[in-house]
Structures are given as C-alpha cells and as structure tokens.
Design goal:
One of its GO terms (biological process) is digestion. With 191 residues, this protein is of the alpha+beta class. Helices cover 17% and strands 11% of the residues. The termini are far apart.
Length: 191
C-alpha cells in the first residue's frame, strides 16, 4: 500500500517548484499594483493592499481603501463615532442615537452587551416622561412645578418623590401636604 504512494511522490515534488514560481510572478505583479494602504484614495479594488476600494466616505466624491471583514467581504464605508447620522446602518458601530440636547443624531459606540442605548437626560433636567431620564424617574416635585428627572430612592430604588419634612411632598400617603388630601399628580398612567 505504501509502495504506490512513494512512487507518486517524486513526480509531485518536481511539480512543486514550478507551481510556486508561477504563483510568485502573479504575486509580484499584484504587489506592484496594490500599494495603497487603508484610508488612501483609490479608483479600483486592485490599487489597495486590502483589495477593497469603496465609496461613501466623508468626502462623497472620492473612494478610499478599506479593510476587509473577517469573512473577507468588502463592506461599504461607514461613519466613525461622533459623526452625524440618520440611520444605524450609516455608523461603524451600527448605533445612531441622540447623544445630547441637539436635535440631530450621531454615531456612538455600543455598550459592552452590544446594545444601542439612546442618550437620556441627567437628574435635574425637565422631562415629560420616565423614558427621557437616565434614572427612568420623572416626577413633579411641587404641585405647581414642572416635572424633573430625579434619582430613584428607597431600598428598592423606586421612582418616588422625595420626603420633605416641610410637608411639601409625602410619598407615604401619595398626597401633598398643601393640598390636604388631594392626590399628587404624576406623569404616565395613574394607579
């Protein structure tokens, strides 16, 4: 059984140097054409070391050399974090959200759990619903005052109004001291 394999091996070894020399020439030609690195301007895939030239950079008139994916695909260019966007697909991070008080969205990194979390208002800011706040807690501190984001309080970190010794708010009874038994108003559905 081993005899036929050893008889085929010498002819195969003779073919090996010829095949490697043929491959060497095409590699030499490709190395000469593909001299541009990642981020450099290009006109075709062959000009890039990555063999990936795509359109859609911040300069819409030009094409740039881009890296290939792990699966050797040539993906379209996407905006880096901090640039304005309209859709998740425009961003490298695949995460386009409001990141502050400005009306436009921008590309931001995903969380460690690969979630795209929108920006929320910090404690003390005006709000109209719980979802607007980082603390997920938007309440009216005074009966005649605006709703504001506040930190959660209590052992179970619930969204409760702060207990005031002056009698402004009492979360134990759910009423304001000044209103003498009238229920306090809260955003969202009432129990």
């Amino acid at each position: 059984m081993a005899g036929p394999v050893w008889m085929l091996l010498p002819p195969l070894l003779l073919l090996l140097p010829l095949g490697s020399l043929a491959g060497h020439r095409s590699w030499q030609k490709q190395a000469y054409l593909s001299h541009k690195g990642i981020g450099e301007a290009c006109r075709s895939d062959e000009e890039c070391q990555s063999n990936c030239c795509t359109t859609g950079s911040l300069d819409p008139t030009g094409k740039r050399c881009n890296p290939r994916t792990v699966f050797l695909r040539c993906p379209p260019w996407r905006k880096p974090n901090g640039h304005s966007c309209f859709r998740n697909s425009e961003c490298q991070s695949r995460c386009c959200v409001h990141s502050n008080y400005r009306p436009q969205k921008c590309c931001v990194p995903q969380t460690i759990f690969l979630q795209c979390v929108p920006w929320r208002k910090p404690d003390g800011d005006f709000c109209s619903s719980h979802g607007e706040c980082q603390s997920q807690c938007c309440i009216q501190l005074r009966e005649d005052g605006p709703h504001r984001c506040i930190r959660r309080s209590g052992i179970l970190a619930q969204c409760l109004p702060l207990l005031s010794l002056g009698g402004r708010l009492s979360f134990l009874q759910g009423t304001t001291a000044k209103s003498h038994g009238a229920p306090a108003t809260r955003p969202g559905p009432q129990p």
